[in-house]
Design a protein that fits this description.
single chain, mainly alpha, Hypothetical Protein Ta1238, Chain: A, two-stranded antiparallel ribbon, elongated, corrinoid adenosyltransferase activity, CblAdoTrfase-like_sf, ATP binding, nucleotide-binding, transferase
Length: 184
């Protein structure tokens, strides 16, 4: 079997159930989910064994994102989806654990710190973009009911995990201070 099919050479692709332009909102949505999944793979490289719990979470999240991508690529009438409400509950449980491990947050912080934490911040921003793309689809077509809440919670997860990585690695948060407050 060859990796190339040449079927997309004219700017179209196949969803499960119909052929669409590669710019179709569903393709944009699952493409952004796929981009996030790839970024998680990069993030895993930057997390030491000290963060085994987060590494375990991320590997599970990669599986869930693949499930979501499959759901988004399927336009056939469906009663069941791979994306489940339980995925949201699991994320909330992990967020609560990491939030307790981090110092209280009273100000906005800037992304950064240890490289793994910085990549988790980038995952957060890509998750937010994926969420916006999924919302676009939801305005026009049926999607898994858990998709938008999952993506919303996922960005919170990445934020919480990034802060924990920095705490464990001894990096302090860099607080946002409006440019207008900066000395010249």
């Amino acid at each position: 079997m060859k990796i190339y099919t040449k079927s997309g050479d004219e700017g179209n692709t196949h969803l499960i159930g119909k052929k669409v332009p590669k710019t179709d909102m569903r393709v944009e949505a699952y493409g952004t989910v796929d981009e996030l999944n790839s970024l998680i793979g990069v993030t895993l490289i930057h997390l030491s064994d000290q963060h085994a719990d987060i590494r375990k979470d991320l590997k599970k999240i990669q599986q869930e994102l693949f499930d979501l991508g499959g759901d988004l690529a399927n336009v056939t009438d469906r009663d069941t989806y791979y994306m489940q409400e339980a995925f949201i509950t699991d994320l909330e449980d992990r967020i609560d654990v990491y939030w307790e491990e981090s110092p209280p947050l009273e100000r906005f912080i800037l992304p950064g710190g240890q490289s793994g934490a910085a990549y988790l911040h980038q995952c957060r921003t890509v998750a937010r973009r994926a969420e916006r793309r999924i919302v676009d689809v939801a305005h026009e077509e049926q999607i898994p009911p858990a998709a938008i809440p999952y993506m919303n919670r996922l960005s919170d997860y990445f934020f919480s995990a990034s802060r924990v990585v920095n705490v464990r690695e001894g990096y302090e948060d860099t607080f946002y201070d409006a440019s207008r407050n900066q000395p010249e």
